[in-house]
Specification:
Order of helices and strands: EEHHHHHHHHHH
CATH architecture of the largest domain: Orthogonal Bundle
Number of domains: 2
Distance between the termini: 46 Å
Strand content: under 5%
Low-confidence stretches: 1-13
Structural class: mainly alpha
Number of helices: 10
CATH class of the largest domain: Mainly Alpha
Shape: elongated
Largest sheet: 2 strands, antiparallel
Helix content: 55-70%
CATH topology of the largest domain: Tetracycline Repressor, domain 2
Length: 203
């Protein structure tokens, strides 16, 4: 694992695992949102001092961006797998299944880091909100290309607009995350997924 050796004010080196510290920071941001997470919350969870945080990650905004990279790499890996499904329905099944697993398995916080941070409204958080929205737009663009191909292949009915289907699926996934964060049970979340797939157009 990558480690950083930093010097404390007393001159003693302070060594810690950057990846472990970043994982801890991600959990804080995921639980509390960008605005809700204070530097004290972050340094306590990461087990480092503020000077160490600044030296290793930059400021709070830079730390969040690195945590968001980790979130996308480790927690949203199912998205790329979903887009490789052979049918549009398969894409939906994998997307919804991945989102459901993220909300119902393991010890990760419930809810969606992107959804939590996209509603940030303070002046300090505007650049963070913009960053999250840009990443969401990129993901939606990839899904749109996949559904446009599905329609060209005859895998979707003629009356279905791919862009609207992307917005619909994104809305369901975001709603799933919001309800998970509000305490919905795994069974209730599963019923949302099952109902969505029952209503899915085409094969």
């Amino acid at each position: 694992m990558e480690t950083d050796t930093l010097t404390t004010p007393r001159g003693r080196p302070r060594e810690f695992c950057v990846e472990t510290a970043l994982t801890a920071a991600l959990r804080v941001f995921w639980s509390m949102g960008y605005e809700g997470a204070s530097l004290s919350d972050l340094t306590e969870a990461m087990g480092i001092t503020r000077p160490s945080l600044y030296a290793a990650f930059g400021n709070k905004e830079a730390l969040f961006r690195k945590a968001l990279d980790l979130y996308e790499r480790d927690k949203l890996a199912y998205v790329a797998n979903a887009l490789s499904a052979p049918t549009a329905r398969g894409v939906a099944e994998r997307m919804l299944g991945g989102a459901l697993d993220l909300q119902t398995t393991g010890s990760d916080p419930r809810g969606c880091l992107g959804v939590i941070s996209s509603v940030a409204c303070g002046a300090e958080a505007q650049s963070i909100k913009a960053e999250v929205l840009i990443r969401q737009a990129s993901s939606n663009a990839a899904m749109l290309r996949r559904f446009e191909q599905a329609k060209a292949d005859g895998d979707l009915p003629d009356h279905i607009e791919p862009a609207s289907l992307v917005r619909y699926l994104s809305a369901v996934i975001q709603g799933l995350c919001v309800q998970a964060g509000s305490g919905a049970s795994p069974e209730e979340l599963r019923r949302i997924v099952d109902t969505t797939l029952e209503l899915w157009p085409g094969r």
